[in-house]
Amino acid sequence: MKKKYFFIILVLTIILLYISNISQIPKKIILLQDEEIKIKKLYGIDLSYTSDSKEVWKNQITENKKVDVKLLGNIKVKEVSVTVYPKVKVIPTGNLIGLKLYTNGVLVIGETEIITENGEAKRPYEHLDIKEGDTILEINGKSIDTSKKLEHIINESKGENVEIKYASHGEIKKGKITPIKTSDNEYKIGLWVRDSASGVGTMSFYDPATKKFAALGHGISDSDTGELLNIEKGEMVNSKIITITKGQKGFPGEIKGSISKEKSIGNVNQNTNFGIFGNLSETPTTLEKYKDGLEIALRNEIEIGKATIISSLENNKLEEFEIEITEIYEENNVDNKSMKLKITDEKLLNKTGGIICGMSGSPIIQNNKVIGVLTNVLVSDPSIGYGIFSDIMIKEMIK
User: Fold this and answer.
1) Other C-beta atoms within 10 Å of 57: how many?
2) DSSP string covering 317-337, please?
3) What's the distance, CA 363 to chain centroid?
4) CB-based contact 356:247 (threshold 8 Å)
5) 51: how many CB neighbours lie within 10 A of its CB?
6) Which terminus has fewer CB within 10 Å in the chain: N or C?
7) Which active-site residues does the annotation give?
8) Tell me: the pLDDT tens digits for 294-338?
């Protein structure tokens, strides 16, 4: 009997693994010309092209090409739409930049009790399913784009019920909440909110034809909630280095910079897990040797071995530093750890200890192509870190 149950559990586990693997295969795939589809799939799951059997499009740009996902060669379990874009030449930068991001609505970053004018403690939000990480979109039908506007409308209510519209994990919800009068003669709803975020990082590259840019190689999350900021708009500005703290084992270093309050040098329209994207309004500086641009490398062109990164560790100065690619994860499309690397340049190691906060976004060059962008540091050894494939970022940029 035990063997029977074990066999049933084993079969169910295998079925669940296959269902999970199939569900994780995206319904839409974007490729660069000549690029192969690289996705993780279990034994027995194959891609079957409806019009040909090739896994590479040669000299052909297509949109919405249908590909069947088949189990055991015959059973169709899913259909995938594939779009192929032409190869793009980009100009690698490595400039330190400042970013100012403004949320779509205001982000809830905490909850608190309200002490009434009579000294009672109340939580006016507790009957609602609203929590840290949610976004308040409207109050009484009026769009909320700043914390000051929210505060003004709540005070205007004079304690009358207000209708609140908010987003929670992609779902739009509505409810009513009664503002509470405090001992300071103000009305509050007990929610801490934030409407913007700012920081410094590195611009990776841009397309000289469209002026679209990519930066950071990872998204910007709220410091309180840890959630990726759902932005409505943003701007990129110049940044000036104030200090550099050298990284040590267990203590990541960082570049501390001031963000310019002068005119923006670009607009931000995407904050994704794979980076920050937008459009330039001014042409950034780059190394003279790369001013004419470089091709984005396909994954099968990336090699274990020597490469370089471009970073700015002194104001108005770009430098190229030597690194070594130690591991490549060709099938990884889910996070920004596409390749493992080690800083080998003695000048960089002496100055920063390796990879430090603020260097994220530094373009990685190998064989005269942009192969990726620096993203993460290994806290236990700041000389070791990760990079994201440049093809992932370019696909996000051209969407």
Assistant:
1) 19
2) EEEEEEEEEEEE-TT--SSS-
3) 16
4) yes
5) 9
6) N
7) 218, 345, 360
8) 999 989 899 999 999 999 998 889 999 999 999 999 888 888 999
